[in-house]
Amino acid sequence: MAEPGGLLVAAPRSGSGKTVVTLGLLAALKARGLAVAPAKSGPDYIDTAILERAAGRAAVNLDPWAMAPSRLKSLAASHTADADLLLVEGVMGLFDGAADGTGSTGDLAAALGLPLVLVVDAERQGQSIAALVSGFANWRADIRVAGVILNRVASTRHERMLVAALSETGITCLGVIPRDSGLALPERHLGLVLPDEATSFETVVGRAGEVVADYVDLGRVLELAAPLASAEPRPLRLAPLGQRIAIARDRAFAFLYRHMLDDWRAAGAELSFFSPLADEAPAPDADAVFLPGGYPELHGSALSAASNFRAGLLAARDRGALVYGECGGFMVLGEVLFDKAGVPHEMVGLLPVITRIDRPKRTLGYRRLAHQSPLPWPGRLMGHEFHYSSVKQTRLTPLFAATDTLGEPLPPMGAVEGRVMGSYAHVIDAPAMA
């Protein structure tokens, strides 16, 4: 197999259609018999799950804010070891990042040396599109916009006008996609709906693949792919939570970073999975239990009634296993969860916290975290927080001290009770110098 190349799909702003175009590229290239390794820039779990489902193979997060360049290169290289192409979907607008100005899709492109395909929403755009594209292409010298895909074009006349204007920029127009109301995925409060929950998912992906195959020059897209930046072996930064780790995984606990699981396996840990929604308990010999994030607020009744699950967690606590919950997992480790209708549901009760989502308040952003806890990780960590629920905490020791990306202190996060702990933070990695 030839050395795989890579491309990054970006856009001037959110809502331009880059997710659907990326899905279409994955489906169309898969139909050609190519093995395309999908990835997502930034911390988003849901888009990664969507890309994975469309590609029929694993997807990873490549986060230029939370991960050092060496980590990004190593992940990209290992992820594409058996693939023909790395296809990365960007996040937000090309140069949009954290409040400290870092972590953008452009930063990821620069770190990995990947050329960019810019998806531009052409609706209500005329010849001025050339200035827009030229501005993005020339804003930074360390990135390369190799081609443009025009989306939501109104007519043949509109297409001719846009293509003629773009010809003045010297940037290749790779395709022109007309308006199509069938190219939309359902959403909920944390973003797009997970693919298993969207009955229309396969239809949308199939339609996107057909549209991209019809309107985008796939041969030219593949010609633009560049070799991946060379990667050196990297040290393990997030050690396994234990030697035998039981991990909750179902619709209520769906937010898992693949790079973390791969790290744990590489370190020799044995991973097992169980479904709290099916009232399954963690493996009785597990010395660590991980409850990741997800949507427990949508399944309050089922989780409250899951007696085997609860008994298994209590048994894990009593035998001294490390029990760790992130975001939704943290909520379930608490005493009570109030759902969107204000109905209380009894949770496991291992942490003295009460959470509720009936008074929604969005909390979003990267976090620098510091801890002195039983977590077998460096004392400083890089993470992300995104939730609409709120927490009432009593009688507790916080798990993390936290700051935002600008270094501004935030309220302490989470709770620790012996070897049971959790918080709203999703840990991504440790700083390069930790």
From TrEMBL:
<keyword id="KW-0169">Cobalamin biosynthesis</keyword>
<protein>
    <recommendedName>
        <fullName>Hydrogenobyrinate a,c-diamide synthase</fullName>
        <ecNumber>6.3.5.9</ecNumber>
    </recommendedName>
</protein>
<keyword id="KW-0460">Magnesium</keyword>
<feature type="domain" description="CobB/CobQ-like glutamine amidotransferase">
    <location>
        <begin position="244"/>
        <end position="428"/>
    </location>
</feature>
<comment type="function">
    <text>Catalyzes the ATP-dependent amidation of the two carboxylate groups at positions a and c of hydrogenobyrinate, using either L-glutamine or ammonia as the nitrogen source.</text>
</comment>
<dbReference type="Pfam" id="PF07685">
    <property type="entry name" value="GATase_3"/>
</dbReference>
<dbReference type="InterPro" id="IPR011698">
    <property type="entry name" value="GATase_3"/>
</dbReference>
<dbReference type="InterPro" id="IPR002586">
    <property type="entry name" value="CobQ/CobB/MinD/ParA_Nub-bd_dom"/>
</dbReference>
<dbReference type="InterPro" id="IPR029062">
    <property type="entry name" value="Class_I_gatase-like"/>
</dbReference>
<keyword id="KW-0315">Glutamine amidotransferase</keyword>
<keyword id="KW-0547">Nucleotide-binding</keyword>
<comment type="similarity">
    <text>Belongs to the CobB/CobQ family. CobQ subfamily.</text>
</comment>
<keyword id="KW-0067">ATP-binding</keyword>
<dbReference type="Pfam" id="PF01656">
    <property type="entry name" value="CbiA"/>
</dbReference>
<feature type="site" description="Increases nucleophilicity of active site Cys">
    <location>
        <position position="426"/>
    </location>
</feature>
<comment type="pathway">
    <text>Cofactor biosynthesis; adenosylcobalamin biosynthesis; cob(II)yrinate a,c-diamide from precorrin-2 (aerobic route): step 9/10.</text>
</comment>
<dbReference type="InterPro" id="IPR004484">
    <property type="entry name" value="CbiA/CobB_synth"/>
</dbReference>
<feature type="active site" description="Nucleophile">
    <location>
        <position position="327"/>
    </location>
</feature>
<dbReference type="InterPro" id="IPR027417">
    <property type="entry name" value="P-loop_NTPase"/>
</dbReference>
<comment type="similarity">
    <text>Belongs to the CobB/CbiA family.</text>
</comment>
<keyword id="KW-0436">Ligase</keyword>
<feature type="domain" description="CobQ/CobB/MinD/ParA nucleotide binding">
    <location>
        <begin position="8"/>
        <end position="190"/>
    </location>
</feature>
